[in-house]
Amino acid sequence: MGMSRNKQDYSIGFVGGGRITSILLEAWEKEGDLPGTIFVNDSNTDVLKALKAKHPAIESSTETSKITGCDVVFLALHPPAIAVVLSEIKGKLKPSAVLISLAPKWSIEKLMTGLSGFNRIVRIIPNASSIVNEGYNPVTFSSAIKDNEKKDILRLFKAFGGCPEVEEDKLEAYAILCAMGPTYLWFQMQKLRELGVSFGLTAKEADKALYEMVKGAAKTLFKSGLAYDDVVNLIPVKPLADDEPVILQAYEAKLKGLYEKLKE
Q: Comparing C-alpha atoms, which of 92, 102, 98, 109 is closest to residue 149?
């Protein structure tokens, strides 16, 4: 990668054509600034066909050979699938290429070992909200990535929302909080949408009210300067107070257990 290159100058490869690849492609499309060439590799032809129908600008292949010649290669796989792919592409990446891993659990050191010493590696924890050019996608760079290259890579990520540089050992914590975080909230928001309509609001009225409420609630908790107890006491009626212990226990048990697995 060279200094101050435009997105159109890059050839981009994705190993894996699943949800997150589609989300990142959608982010670039919404921004109206797709990279020049995009190859997507997946062993499943049905996955590639569906992705191509949704994102016609991509080129797809079941072989990794086109991917390994790209300037930037995204490893868009779940952790259990990574070892096999690393063995397939090691020794085949261009020396100037950058490998970007989207997975938790696989450290830069572990990725380097799997790639026989290739060290031009970036890790990012992607967020589903990138589909609307929002979200929080923490990034860690290997020491082989120079400062000017970091700027180029972050420009490439701009459409994904916030992409702060963080310490690598914190990425799994961000995976639990940010990458999976929307799933802790969406089902509750959806139920409130449905209830709002059942109470006589139009769908548009319910959505507008809830969207603004969620923004305001977050700002009050994180930006008001009030202690948590003071925030909670701003509202005297708490209809779900009796259910909170059960909900909190689910957070405690499920998320701590998952974090421990990711850090093994």
A: 98
Whole-angstrom CA distances from 232 to 11, 192, 210, 238 are 50, 19, 18, 9
Share of the chain above pLDDT 90, in %: 91
Domain spans in the chain, listed from the N-terminal domain onward: 7-167, 181-262
**Would you state the pLDDT for residue 7?**
65
34, 7 in Cβ contact below 8 A? yes
Torsion of CA 69, 71, 76, 79, to 10 degrees: 80
Confidence of residue 32 (pLDDT cuts 50, 70, 90): confident
Could you report the per-residue pLDDT of 175-189, keeping only the tens digit for each? 999 999 999 999 999
Give the residue among 167, 168, 158, 163 at the shortest CA–CA distance from 138. 163
pLDDT at 1: 53
Mean pLDDT (the chain, rounded): 95
Secondary structure of residue 257 in the 3-state scheme: helix
Question: What is the β-pairing status of strands 121-124 and 11-15?
Answer: unpaired
Give me the helices (H) in 14-145, please.
Answer: 19-31, 45-54, 79-89, 108-114
Assign domain 181-262 to a CATH class.
mainly alpha
Quickly name the fold that domain 7-167 has: Rossmann fold (3.40.50)
